[in-house]
Design brief:
This protein is α/β, with parallel strands linked by helices and 427 residues long. The protein folds into 2 domains: 96 residues, Alpha Horseshoe (Serine Threonine Protein Phosphatase 5, Tetratricopeptide repeat), CATH 1.25.40; 261 residues, Spore Coat Polysaccharide Biosynthesis Protein SpsA, Chain A (Alpha-Beta Complex), CATH 3.90.550.10. Helix content is 47%, strand content 16%. The strands form 2 sheets. It has a 7-stranded mixed beta sheet. Strands 4, 6, 7, 8, 10, 13 and 14 form a 7-stranded mixed beta sheet that branches. The longest helix has 22 residues. The radius of gyration is 27 Å and the shape is elongated.
Length: 427
């Protein structure tokens, strides 16, 4: 068996925490035969001893000796970033990605750095693009999505990524109907006022069904009473907090048959979010006491196609689709089950579902998974066997806290602007 080399001895000492001995052996190995492996080890020792300038110098030597090594380029970027040499760090990460474009950790580091430097003129769109790419990889999905959602606050309003002119999204003079059911007239009045204000520029009607036996029954009645070519079925505790709802909704319905504001591209259990990440998409605002949060489920959008299930908080479609699929008035007692069942029947009929992350909807409640829901869930799984698959534990949203209602609206404007810009880059 050949004797262990100076490098191997040095590496063993490094792993044992004997940094002085490791340095002596590594320097001896470097003098005998300068190579990238030894230079990288000397960089690691220097980093462990908080000698970051020395570490970056050794990593540059390693990179010169092995210029096609993406790992060395990534580590050089990380070390330079720790030295606040961010432009150099980003250049190193870009070299790493040119060599290994599937490195999620490098996309994450690059995106986080660019957004952190947004006040210094760094490219916000490039940062969000990098984070979107990092979110494609399981190991970096959550950190990248969280950084993306937080990074939306850097999007200038107005600015280089100002949102698309709403006039370009196909404004229609046709009637749009909003149908909602309620057992609380005062709560419904708030929702009606919000939709009326948001839809003031376009022809619309708002149909309120009082105290139906179930949401399915109420929506069926509301559909009969409504006249619009597009029908929005919404909970009575929702509001629209940004402009452009109607033209954007119609544009989305030009690409799919049914649109929701939250949903999943996989189906696991009797609740849409049980598909878990990375299959969850959309954006919804929530009121938390006197504060507000934007819940964003992915970096995708503004429209994610081929969803399998949608959250019933707001579902929109053309009248013909609503009539074709129909709301089952008696199958689902109370206020659960109707949305999952409708979506699965729509897909079975060959219709295409989409999740829109750009409509800017506020929801004043987060739902309740009580005994009534449990009973409906059992019936859903009996009717739809695909709902019996093991559910994911990754059912959370990425939340951004907004101090007040205005801040929530501005956050959704920034999200819309970013998603529009990213969509144009990807096109």
């Amino acid at each position: 068996m050949p004797a262990a080399s100076d490098f191997e001895h040095a590496f063993a000492q490094f792993r044992a925490g004997e940094l002085g001995a490791a340095t002596q052996l590594a320097v001896a190995a470097w003098i005998k035969s300068p190579d990238a492996r030894t230079a990288t080890l000397l960089a690691l020792i220097a980093e462990r001893e908080a000698r970051l300038d020395d570490a970056s110098a050794w990593l540059r030597r390693a990179s010169d000796l092995d210029p096609r090594n993406a790992s060395i380029a990534h580590q050089l970027g990380t070390t330079l970033s720790a030295l606040d040499r961010h432009t150099e760090a980003e250049a190193a990460w870009r070299r790493a990605l040119a060599l290994a474009p599937e490195r999620g950790a490098t996309w994450l580091a690059l995106g986080q750095s660019l957004l952190a430097r947004s006040d210094d003129g760094a490219d916000i769109l490039a940062g969000l693009t990098a984070l979107r790419k990092a979110a494609r990889f399981e190991a970096t999905h959550d950190a990248a999505a969280a950084a993306f959602v937080d990074g939306i606050r850097h999007v200038p309003l107005p600015g280089a990524m100002a949102h698309v002119d709403e006039a370009d999204t196909g404004r229609s003079d046709k009637l749009l109907s909003v149908v909602m059911c309620t057992v609380d007239r005062r709560r419904a009045e708030r929702a009606v006022a919000s939709y009326a204000a948001a839809l003031a520029p376009v022809a619309h009607e708002i149909v309120v069904v009082d105290a139906p036996s179930s949401l399915g029954a109420g929506y069926a009645e509301g559909l009969r009473r409504s006249r619009g070519d597009v029908v929005v079925f919404a909970h009575d505790d929702t509001e629209i907090v940004v402009e452009g709802f109607e033209p954007r909704l119609r544009a989305h319905l030009g690409r799919c048959d049914v649109v929701g504001i939250a949903g999943a591209t996989d189906v696991r259990g009797p609740a849409w979010a049980q598909a878990g990440h990375p299959f969850l998409h959309g954006a919804v605002g929530y009121a938390t006491g006197d504060r507000f949060e934007a819940h964003v489920y992915s970096t995708s959008g503004p429209l994610v196609l081929d969803a399998k299930v949608l959250d019933g908080v707001l579902i929109a479609m053309r009248r013909g689709v609503a009539s074709q699929v129909g709301w089952e008035a008696s199958a689902w007692a109370g206020f659960h089950g109707y949305d999952i069942d409708f979506c699965l029947r729509a897909r079975k009929a060959g219709l295409r579902l989409g999740v829109a992350a750009d409509l800017g909807v506020l929801h004043h409640s987060s739902g309740a998974f009580d005994e009534r829901w449990e009973a409906v869930a059992r019936e859903l799984m009996r009717r739809w066997p695909e709902l019996t698959q093991p559910v994911s534990e990754r059912t959370f949203a990425f939340a951004h806290e907004c101090g007040d209602r205005r801040a929530l609206g501005n956050y959704f404007r920034g999200l819309r602007a970013a998603l529009d810009a990213l969509d144009r880059v990807a096109a």
